[in-house]
């Protein structure tokens, strides 16, 4: 055999190998898109809206959340504000939320027998009750629950983890498919018109490469909320020392209650246990009261807008917590209800390296870390994700053969396909639910191939 013949065979094998790899990647990019894009559209719409949660609530619920600033007027005592709320909606006071700004109302969470938990909105200057909503009953809380699929139970929420994991893989395979291969268009420019498939292919590719980083960032920073991966990482990162970061003084009696069950808290403190008021003080007939507790929190310098959860048992505590846009101002303080002594006082600075990194990611994910610029950049990313999904659907529809699903062809060399699966399996190990879904998709693909073979016989 001549050297020329050997050279031609070598080049041919190389071309076939590259073509097989392209087919394998394209096939799994297609399958991942079928699985992920419907969720990504929902997440993009609800996430884009939730970026502007404060602005939306300020408009829709302005009659409850906003008051006229009374210059020079002092605010009513917290106890008087709570008393007014209870007079309008009898029940058990659970939480007092300090007005975050001069034109904001005070919010009192009340447990009632007939209506469940209510948030009562009170003018902080006059103690006038402006109205009430169910706890977490604002429009943006509804959007948040839709975003996390919380309305549909824990099993549905696991789909978020699957979607997030596969979105990372879909970006990785998309970069390979986008990578320039001698073509002059479809890399950073869009060819053709909307009537042609190449227009939608280029639009999909250019949009994907432009927004890929943001998709990966949002997927990773959204993972802490996921049911399996997020829960396990939280246990690993914050499962010791009563759920507090290492170095935080917790040499006080602890209850079995977790902070996340008592009040909305940060991801890093979901497992943090609530301390107990000193047993030696329980014989006292009176606690320091809400007014003194609020005065103590003010003196300690908690950021405005903090929430105070009142003790419900003889050994309970006053818990002050605040999670403003500025991460450095995050803080949780627990006070002994009898002496007013701070039992635990911790802030963002006390978190460990992993906790700080994840909290920074979460804060940026929510559009809070960099103000309006943060909101606008992520809104653009959400709109681009929707465009990705639409362009993918149109491109598939134009390419799909009549009467067929239009799945990209299998590679000729099955070893290439197996190698790609091995790489994807690594992602499945890191994200267990993604690995489980990979097995399911392999089974579906096998059934699809068997069905096609039977039809062709």
From TrEMBL:
Q: Residue ranges of the PepSY domain?
A: 78-132
Asked if the keyword Membrane belongs to this entry, the reply reads yes
Which residue windows are transmembrane per the record? 28-52, 158-179, 199-220, 376-397, 417-449
One example of the protein's molecular function in GO is: sulfite reductase (NADPH) activity
- Pfam family for this entry, one: PepSY_TM
Give the Enzyme Commission number: 1.8.1.2
Question: InterPro entries, from UniProt?
Answer: PepSY, PepSY-ass_TM
Q: Which domain of life is it from?
A: Bacteria
Which positions are tagged coiled coil?
none
Record keywords: Membrane, Oxidoreductase, Transmembrane, Transmembrane helix
Query: Mind telling me which PANTHER family this protein's record contains?
Result: IRON-REGULATED INNER MEMBRANE PROTEIN-RELATED, PEPSY DOMAIN-CONTAINING PROTEIN
What is this protein's name? Uncharacterized iron-regulated membrane protein
